[in-house]
Specification:
heterotrimer, A mainly alpha (110), B alpha/beta (630), C alpha/beta (339), A: mainly alpha, Fumarate Reductase Iron-sulfur Protein, Chain B, domain 2, C: 339 residues, FAD/NAD(P)-binding domain, 8 helices
Chain lengths: 110, 630, 339
């Protein structure tokens, strides 16, 4: 029976169900990925942010929360210009991190 | 002159003949493979260049000067130059004179032609009574002496490299050592062998004298054959291991020179020109001392010479590690005596990486970005285009957004000089593509180049100004902007000053100029910044400058070097710059400025800041944009 | 009572310990490189959390330490280690032989021009926390526009928690200082919007949280969680600040009449120089290394040498004063043990 509405899927992140295998693989090649303190410097300086919403901070977070697809779509316009590496107060090598993500994750987020 | 043996053959020639045939076959097959691996277009270009008189002459000249005389080495280090040219040129002359001798004195050689020129003295007895004979005897002994002197130096170098002014040399591999020792053995053995026969088939000051001095031993002809055997074996071993050692550089360089003169670039990471470069590496180790990463011992094995070695061994893990770590400062390319392009070779390796997904910029609307600035009015009525009405589009680039001092100073200078300018990316733009290119992702870089080209071509500008050398290099090499002049701000300021549009006061502050890698070695701009600085103050030079300038360590070229690991490189570069105790360090790259600023003990600034501080307008009326910055 | 006690640095730590040593019957020697006593606090206007005038605190300390032997405009040229004492040569030609040295060398304010992207020294509307205090004290700073102040921004963590600025440590006092200065500015310019760009707010001290609540509720100061990455200038000379509002996940951009950079605390280079002369080690944070960071923070690894105040790391005024008193007691006990 259709009442014209459905229970919308929960937007909560259930950490019990997040598959961390890929992220652990990423972490083993990029140990600094856990150093991010989410200050947002990279996002605000990023020239690709206005085009694809690129934010290294959000990408790191999304990958940890199992939202791979979201992360990868943000990275679509990354220009690898290195501004994020320059401003990062924790000295994370974001450029190599981006390349590593492109090697470990797949476009469909799987 | 007479033949000593009717057959003109002895078994001892076999090791040599086998080695010789092997190495010749190997080289010919290798050469054909490399040429076949070139893209069709490049191959055609190569063949055409071979028959074009101009390049043909250049090839011969280069092969003579580089492979035999080693002029580049002479320029860097006289002792090293002598060592290499004495062995190479001396050996070449021994072979040449040997062949002439054979041709002069023997007829109908047949198969003997293979080994006769090498073992002539054993097979033929000759008198030195004729003028011709004694001259050839003398020449052969003379060149043998030249080679021997080189071998002695080589042995000294192996034991004490500091004697040659080299801090570090390469660690030879096992086969390299076999090749090395057999090469060292060849010439003393030849001397010994020829000394045995000096009383029969003649000799000159070296062999004959030796024969007289050690009559007891050398005149005993029973000892003769073993010496000739040993000589032939040394040659045979050397030729057999040659393809697997660094000595492969000798034949490869002869191929590399015409390839380079034909203007061919590296396309494939492992094939064609790249392969020729890898095999042309003589493992001399000059790149080790040149490499800015060398300040940390752990990086020594990541220099170009080891990259070449790992590529030859197909050690993929190490190739990736070495090529990703490099700063791409291209100093190894600048010092390489054979012309291995360490930076381009690494970028090519990076381009082989497989990524599951990559950026794509088709969604970016370039016309929106064009609306960020006012377009120049294209005025076709102007009969003459003078410097005064040039329309300058200033692309500040990503890095300059983080160093506002550069942008502000450049704008102020343009206002003072009355230049009509617009800033293309005041609110951000598209990256020039160079950092992407450095990561080896050519397709993505090309897309960015296309987007930027569209924005620039729509602007109505006739000049594109850049204050970042990273941008400047890719704009010069990969952008096609018909009708638009691409100019770096150092050039621009030099022109403004020399044309009198900008007046600069001179102060007695001591400046040192750091040549940014991408501007100096990358684009060959050395003079303009120095002209500009000399106009504003006293210019002193760094210990290593221009082509040999040391990378600041902040380069985007390196993909893996972490922030902390770059510190030692920056400090080393600063100590190089401050050798002449300047008051200020000046550079012309936002990234260098940012990097040096972090660790330097004295002010670091961009050249535009210096000019802005000491300049006045050269014109009576102020420019259109004067209100913008003041 | 004949022992010489040398106190290096005439800031509040030096003055307080000198005053307490005088109380115990000693006559300490204070060596101060500048022309006035009171150090950084003397340049400040009001102190959190009760808005105590800094001048009062410093003056009280100067009065109570007046009996000390004070050398102003004096630096330490070199120090020789003797058998069980030190020979200190001063720049005024005097040499002192002592068994006891107290380091109260304090800190330096981070040079904000090193963070090039914030445009300190380049843009006219960018000042530091220290410049602002100076303006509170004197009213003299061309960069502060007295009449047209519509929007002001504070950038936290300038030169702190920043590996790129070579100081990964938290400077501890800037959060509360920014809140204090934001309130003070809001009091002077009630119409102005005041923004604080922070990464984390560390309100650890007595009544700090109240201060923070007051700034939010009573003064309407806008706290934006995001680190400023770029500062540019618009055509009319105001500064445009770019950051990410990390809580909404959106980039923010705001035009300001004044941008105040909360420059952090870094180890004083003169302090490291003198420490080097007597062979004192530096800790990994760049400040002087204590014998133990929990139990013996005021003891150096060397006998007879003590620390007080910000030479061992960022500290608030009350913490510094407490350490200074503790150091005076330690010195007293040390002298007793020598007899």
């Amino acid at each position: 029976m259709d009442f014209g509405f459905k229970i919308s899927p929960s937007s909560a992140v259930n950490l019990d169900n997040v598959n961390v295998e890929k992220f652990e693989q990423l972490h083993s090649v990029e140990p600094d990925v856990y150093k991010c303190m989410a200050c947002g410097s990279c996002s605000s300086t990023c020239p690709a942010n206005r085009f694809s919403g690129m934010s290294m901070r959000k990408v790191i977070l999304a990958l940890q929360r199992g939202k791979e697809k979201e992360a990868i779509s943000m990275m679509r316009n990354c220009m690898l210009c290195g501004k994020c590496s320059m401003v990062c107060p924790r000295g994370i090598n974001t450029r190599h991190l981006i390349l590593s993500i492109s090697r470990i994750y797949k476009e469909d987020g799987k | 002159m007479r033949e000593r043996f009717l057959t003109g053959y002895n078994d001892f020639v076999l090791p040599f003949v086998c080695g010789m045939l092997f190495v010749l076959t190997y080289c010919i097959v290798g050469m054909i493979r490399i040429i076949m691996q070139l893209p069709a277009q490049d191959r055609k270009r190569f063949f055409i260049s071979l028959v074009t008189p101009k390049t043909m002459l250049k090839n011969i000249k280069d092969i003579f000067l580089k492979c035999l005389i080693h002029v580049d080495l002479w320029k860097r280090n006289k002792l090293l130059g002598y060592m290499h040219s004495s062995i190479a040129f001396g050996w070449f002359m021994l072979i040449l004179v040997g062949h002439i001798e054979v041709l002069l004195y023997t007829s109908n050689l047949g198969a003997k032609a293979l080994y006769y020129p090498i073992f002539f003295r054993y097979f033929v007895a000759e008198t030195e009574s004729t003028m011709k004979g004694s001259l050839i005897f003398f020449l052969m002994d003379f060149f043998l002496l030249v080679v021997l002197s080189g071998i002695v130096l080589a042995i000294i170098k192996r034991v004490r490299s500091r004697f040659f002014g080299m801090r570090r040399t390469t660690n030879p591999s096992f086969l390299d050592l076999v090749g090395l020792y057999s090469l060292w053995a060849i010439f003393p053995l030849r001397l010994l062998a020829e000394s045995f026969t000096a009383d029969i088939s003649g000799g000159s000051f070296l062999t004959k004298s030796l024969n007289y001095v050690f009559t007891e031993f050398l005149s005993n002809h029973a000892n003769m054959l073993p010496a000739w055997w040993a000589y032939s074996c040394a040659l045979g071993i050397f030729f057999c291991v040659l393809p697997f050692t660094r000595y492969m550089h000798i034949p490869t360089e002869i191929l590399l020179i015409p390839l380079r003169n034909a203007g061919i670039r590296i396309v494939n990471a492992r094939k064609g020109l790249a392969k020729a470069q890898v095999y042309a590496c003589p493992s001399c180790g000059l790149c080790i001392d040149a490499c800015p990463m060398g300040v940390m011992k752990s990086n020594i094995k990541d220099t170009t010479v080891y990259l070449n070695r790992q590529i030859r061994r197909n050690n993929e893990a190490r190739i990736e590690e070495i090529s990703d770590k490099c700063l791409l400062c291209a100093k190894c390319t600048a010092v390489c005596p054979v012309g291995v392009e360490g930076d381009k070779l690494r970028i090519a390796q990076r381009s082989m990486r497989k990524y599951n997904f990559g950026p794509d910029y088709s969604n970016i609307d370039a016309s929106v970005l064009s609306e960020q600035y006012n377009k120049f009015v294209i005025n076709n009525n102007n009969d003459v285009t003078t410097a005064d009405n040039q329309k300058v589009l200033y692309f500040t680039g990503c890095m300059t957004a983080l160093t506002p001092a550069i942008r502000k100073a450049t704008e102020s200078i343009m206002a003072k000089a009355g230049v009509d300018y617009e800033i293309m990316d005041r609110d951000g733009g598209i990256c020039c593509g160079r950092p992407m290119l450095m990561a080896g992702r050519f397709d993505q870089a090309k897309q960015m180049v296309e987007k930027n080209t569209e924005i620039i071509m729509n602007s109505g500008a006739d000049t594109l100004l850049l204050s970042c050398p990273i941008c400047y290099k890719i704009f010069m090499e990969h952008y096609r902007l018909p009708g638009i002049r691409i100019i770096h701000h150092t050039q621009f300021m030099d022109e403004l000053i020399s044309s009198g549009r900008l007046k600069v006061r001179k102060d007695n502050i001591k400046y040192v100029f750091h040549d940014p890698c991408e501007l100096g070695r990358g684009c060959g701009i050395y003079e303009q910044p120095r002209n500009v600085l000399s106009a504003a103050g006293m210019l002193v030079e760094a210990a290593k400058n221009r082509k040999e300038s040391i990378c600041c360590g902040g380069s985007l070229g390196s993909l893996t070097l972490s922030f902390e690991k770059r510190k030692a490189m920056t400090e080393n570069a600063i100590s190089n710059l401050t050798a002449a105790s300047p008051d200020r360090i000046v550079t012309a790259c936002p990234l260098c400025m940012n990097t040096f600023g972090r660790y330097a003990d004295r002010p670091v600034e961009d050249i535009a800041q210096v000019v802005d501080r000491y300049s006045d307008s050269g014109r009576k009326t102020s420019g259109k944009h004067a209100d913008k910055t003041n | 009572m004949k022992e010489n006690i040398v106190i290096i640095g005439g800031g509040i730590a030096g003055l307080e310990s000198a005053a307490r040593l005088i109380d115990l019957g000693y006559k300490p020697i204070i060596i101060e490189k500048s022309d006035h006593l009171g150090g950084h606090v003397a340049d400040w206007n009001c102190l959190f959390p009760d808005m105590t005038p800094a001048r009062e605190v410093v003056n009280r300390l100067i009065v109570s330490s007046a009996d000390a032997n004070i050398f102003l405009n004096t630096e330490i040229s070199f120090v020789n280690k003797l058998k069980d004492s030190y020979n200190i040569m001063l720049s005024n030609g005097i040499s002192i032989i002592t068994k006891i040295i107290l380091f109260t060398t304090g800190f330096s304010v981070f040079d904000a021009s090193k963070k090039e992207e914030y445009g300190y020294g380049i843009y006219d509307q960018v000042i530091t926390n220290r410049d602002l205090e100076h303006w509170f004290n004197t009213g003299d700073d061309k960069r502060v526009n007295n009449c047209g102040m519509n929007a002001v921004g504070f950038v936290h963590c300038v030169g702190s928690r920043d590996e790129k600025a070579r100081n990964p440590q938290c400077s501890k006092v800037c959060c509360i200082t920014a809140v204090k200065q934001a309130i003070e500015l809001k009091q002077k310019f009630p119409e102005a919007m005041v923004y604080c760009f922070y990464m984390d707010l560390r309100m650890f001290g007595k009544k700090y949280e109240d201060f923070y609540i007051g700034a939010q509720r009573d003064y309407g100061i806008r706290f934006i969680r995001g680190r400023v990455s770029e500062v540019s200038e618009n055509i009319d000379g105001r500064v445009i600040v770019k950051a990410e509002d990390t809580l909404s996940g959106k980039p923010v951009k705001v035009t300001l009449d004044l941008l105040v950079l909360m420059a952090g605390m870094v180890c004083n280079s003169d302090s490291t120089k003198v420490a080097g002369m007597v062979g004192l080690p530096l800790d990994s944070d760049g400040f002087l290394k204590s014998k133990d960071n929990v139990a013996d923070i005021i003891d150096s690894p060397r006998e007879g040498i003590f620390y007080a105040g910000a030479c061992t790391g960022p500290k608030t005024v009350p913490e510094t004063l407490a350490e200074a008193r503790a150091a005076a007691l330690k010195i007293h006990l040390f002298i007793k043990s020598l007899q």
